[in-house]
Amino acid sequence: MNANLMDKIIALSKRRGFIYPGSEIYGGLANTYDYGPAGAELLRNIRNLWWDNFVHKREDVVGIDASIISHQEIWKASGHTAGFADALVDCKNCKLRMRADHLIENNPSFAKATEGKEEKVEGKSLEELEKIIKNNKDIVCPNCGKHDWSSVRKFNLLFPVNLGIVEGDQSLAYLRGETAQGMFVNFKNVVDSTRVKLPFGIAQLGKSFRNEITPGNSVFRTLEFEQGEIEYFFDPEESNWEKLFENWKNSMWDFVTKTLGVNKNNLRWREHGNEEKSFYSKKTEDLEYKFPFGFKELWGIAYRTDYDLKQHMKFSNKDLSIVDPQTGKKIMPHVIEPAVGINRMLLMVLSDSYVEEKERIVLKLNPKLAPYKIAIFPLLANKPELVEKAKKIFKDLSSNFVTVYDGRGNIGKRYFAQDEIGTPFCITVDFDSLKDNTVTVRDRDTMKQERIKISELFTCLTNKLS
Ligand code: GAP
Q1: Ligand 1, atom 11, residue with closest C-alpha
Q2: How far is CA 12 from CA 7, 15, 16, 362, in A?
Q3: For a pocket test of ligand 1, which of 70, 223, 227 has the largest count of ligand atoms closer than 8 A to its C-beta?
Q4: Is residue 78 in contact with ligand 1, taking CB distance under 6 Å?
Q5: Which are the contacts of 348, defined by CB distance < 8 A and separation ≥ 6?
Q6: Best of 181, 225, 229, 335 to mutate for ligand 1, by most ligand atoms within 8 A of CB?
Q7: Residue 299 in contact with ligand 1 by CB distance below 6 A
Q8: Phi-psi sector, 157: left (phi>0), alpha (psi -120 to 50), beta
Q9: In the Cβ-directed half-sphere of 284, how many Cα atoms lie within 13 Å?
Q10: Other CB atoms closer than 10 Å to residue 263's CB: what's the count?
Q11: Tell me: the pLDDT tens digits for 284-340?
Q12: Is 298 helix (H, G, I), strand (E, B) or coil?
């Protein structure tokens, strides 16, 4: 664990407006975060690239946007009300509540004993977890240092909500625990209202909610987070699931390495063992990224068979099978599901692009991801001619590029701040600009400056940023 690097990323995120602790002025609310101006732009860029790549650029995928508040029956049918739970344990001395698997995994002696092995605690039964904790006296509370644990118990992760307009039991609904169910419950609507033909995918980007207890690590695991999920439906008699699974793995890998530009040496695939895998999944793999706190799941892919559609058929009494228009054959489609967290992707790109150089910190973000593509400065903020010219350039460029204007402090400080935000190019308007209509354009990575005519800025920056 590179705690130092994680602390530095958290500090930079706060300092430069990427991520703030949630409800901070009221003392904070655990496991919630707010995104500042730079963070909101970065999230938006990741989202848009995901949607563009997996919806707009594919003729076999359509997108939907389903409701967050959803019927209690959806979550009964999906198995979430019964089985979507974490095993938690309480420190009897100081009352700290923790996930039992995290408590064990983070214990130095367990980490040492399992070093180099693919040992996972997730998925072990309550009894097994309790035995490990009871038998290892050095599994002590990270808060008070005592080994005085309660029994291990299950806590459901779904957030219930009570709807005001309905009486009694019927008022219970849930904030969705995954976006996936929106695709299953709208499967028939999409088939009936569009021209999709098997195999095809339904995609969705949006918030999900889980009442999780987490060990920190910024936005890696939060109560409220954004998912990008695709349910790819196919006829198991016509399509080979193993081949589809491999194709989707390749698309996920290419998106992370090519579109987002993440270093492939920090990525690996890990297949879930039987204990960890959901009971309905025939195969699950995680694309893991090497975060400062170790290799962790970024993006999962699962072959969920026809479990979900069949469950919704059973609970809703609606026929969700489809009929092949050519042969008249009734088909119960199976599904492969790539599911990623957008916030986790954001933390990944921050970690992957964080570079310390001799006299500066720089986020070497792929320009497609950079919150601002261009920053514009007047050399001196108290010279109205410089300010006016710089603002005019801002106005002209901002219709084509996300651009930021900065007139504070000295020029060195402004470069320093933009390097930390990851802005690829900084433009400075100086006294020469007033005479010859040129400006300096500084490259974030090389720090080289060149003189460019204002009339050629648009073409020059378009070429540099493409
Ligand atoms: N429909 C399948 C599903 O939801 P998951 O592995 O629970 O699978 C998919 O979630 C992805 O969502 C994860 O790989 C992760 O990137 C993200 N994710 C899950 N829980 C999260 C949380 N509490 N905070 C942030 N991201 C989370």
Answers
A1: 340
A2: 9, 5, 6, 10
A3: 227
A4: no
A5: 256, 260, 262, 289, 291, 298
A6: 225
A7: yes
A8: alpha
A9: 17
A10: 12
A11: 999 999 999 999 999 999 999 999 999 999 999 999 999 988 889 999 999 999 999
A12: strand
Rounded Cα–Cα distance for residues 152 and 122 (Å): 13
Q: What's the angle, vertex CA 208, arms to CA 207 and CA 209, rounded to 5?
A: 130
DSSP 373-390: SEEEEES-TT-HHHHHHH
Residue-level pLDDT at 85: 82
Question: 99 CB under 6 A from ligand 1?
Answer: no
291 in contact with ligand 1, CB cutoff 6 A: no
Task: Please state, in angstroms and rounded to a whole number, the distance separating the CA atoms of residues 78 and 449.
Answer: 57
- Tracing tokens 């644990």 back to the chain, one arrives at 149
pLDDT at 126: 87
Q: Residue 144: how many CB atoms within 10 A of its CB?
A: 12
DSSP 23: T
**CA 22-25-26 angle, 5° bins:** 85
Query: How far apart, in whole angstroms, are the C-alpha atoms of residue 334 and residue 98?
Result: 36
The SS3 call for residue 151 is coil
**Cα–ligand 1 centroid distance for 286 (angstroms):** 11
Q: Are 41 and 402 in contact (CB under 8 A)?
A: yes
Give the residue carrying structure tokens 């976006």.
179
Q: Sheet containing 159-162: which strands, arranged edge to edge?
A: 69-71, 172-175, 159-162
Locate tokens 């986790």: which residue? 344
Residue 58 contacts by C-beta under 8 Å, 6 or more apart in sequence?
Answer: 201
| Distance (Å, whole) CA 441 – CA 451 | 6
- Residue ranges of the alpha helices (H) in 299-383? 307-316, 342-353
| Global confidence as pTM | 0.91
Regions of the chain where pLDDT drops below 50: none
Quote the CA–CA distance of 250 and 436 in Å, as a whole number: 51
